[in-house]
Amino acid sequence: MPSYCLFPTPIGRCALVWRGDRIIGAQLPELDEDTARRRLAWRFPRAGEAPPLPFVEAAITDIVALLAGEARGLSHLPLDLEAVPAFERRVYEIALSIPPGETMTYGAVAARLGQPGAARAVGVALGRNPVPIIVPCHRVLAAGGRTGGFSAEGGVETKLRLLTLEKARTDASPGLFAALPLAARPSRAAE
User: Which are the catalytic amino acids?
Assistant: First the structure.
C-alpha cells in the first residue's frame, strides 16, 4: 500500500508518495494543505499518510535544497515508473538528464527520442508526470524560449518560479550584463 507525507519547502508544502523502497509520486504546492490532501487522495486513493522512511527523508532533503536555490540534481532518487507507458518513461529519462539551471525544448526532447515530430506528444507526457520536480518537467520549454504549459498549481507562473530558483536561462541570448568582466582588477596605484 502506498504512503505519503507532506513537507515544507521554500515554495510551500510539497508531498512525496512511495511504495516499498521507491517513490511513485510527487506533488508541488497546492493553494493550501486541505487542497493538497484532496489532490493526493484523487491521484493516489489507496495512499495513507505516514512518517517518511529514511530514503524519503533523503529525497526531501535534496528537494528542499533544490527549491532553496542549490544546484542539486534529483535523478539519483529511486523511482518506480513501471505503471507509466513506455513513451512517457523515455521522455522522463531525457528530462532527468537536464541539469539544474539548464533547459531543453519539447522539440529537442522529441528529437532525442528519434521522433522529431513528436513535440506535442512530449508536452502531453510531461503534463502527466507523476513525479514533478524529481522529473524536472519545468526545464522543458517551447521553441524560442517560450514557457509552454505547466500542469502544477499556479501553472506557468510556478514553472517560471522554479526556473528562476535554478537561475535557468530560457534562451541562448546573452544577458544584459553577460559581456561585463566578472571582477575588476585592482589598480596598481592602490598598492
Answer: 137
pTM of the model: 0.84
Give pLDDT tens digits for 40-96. 999 999 999 999 999 999 999 999 999 999 999 999 999 999 999 999 999 999 999
Are 16 and 53 contacting, i.e. CB atoms less than 8 angstroms apart? no
What are the C-alpha distances in Å from 117 to residues 85, 93, 120, 125?
A: 19, 19, 8, 14
Cα 191 from chain centroid (whole Å): 49
Cβ 92 vs Cβ 135: under 8 Å:
yes
47 and 17: one domain?
A: yes
The CATH number assigned to the domain holding 93 equals 1.10.10.10
Name the β-bridge partners of 26: 16
How many residues would you count in the chain? 191
